[in-house]
Write a structure and sequence with these properties.
123 residues, 4 helices, elongated, Arc Repressor Mutant, subunit A, single chain
């Protein structure tokens, strides 16, 4: 059995290792995300994939098709930048902000929600 002091030491070593792994991995991850997430819509879908929101909820929030969201998430899961949880939901590897990528605002560019224009009244 490992004593409390030894356990704390091992946890400290693991934290140090994790720090260095992140340091060496983040630049490559950023390049991969910038290559794969080519549109604002892609970035928003990725960012909303937090393991809590369904593909339907993401699609509804962003005004895009559910099937398009599902296709992207499945492709990204194969690339390893999102993971499919046992619940069937998807969780991103990290937030875009964690690797220094700006998150577009909802409604910008391709992620603009679909809305109907108000009809003009004819006098």
């Amino acid at each position: 059995m490992i004593g409390p002091d030894r356990l704390e030491e091992l946890i400290g070593v693991q934290r140090e290792m994790l720090k260095w792994i992140k340091f060496t991995s983040v630049p490559q991850l950023k390049r991969t995300l910038e290559t794969v997430l080519t549109t604002d819509s892609d970035k928003l879908i990725f960012e909303h994939s937090d393991g809590q929101a369904s593909t339907r909820a993401i699609a509804g929030a962003l005004g895009v098709s559910k099937s398009g969201v599902a296709l992207k998430l499945n492709k990204w899961a194969q690339l390893g930048i999102v993971e499919r949880l046992p619940s069937g939901l998807f969780r991103r590897l990290c937030s875009l902000g964690e690797v220094g990528i700006d998150v577009p605002e909802i409604g910008s560019g391709a992620a603009q929600p679909k809305t109907r224009e108000p009809e003009e009244e004819v006098p």
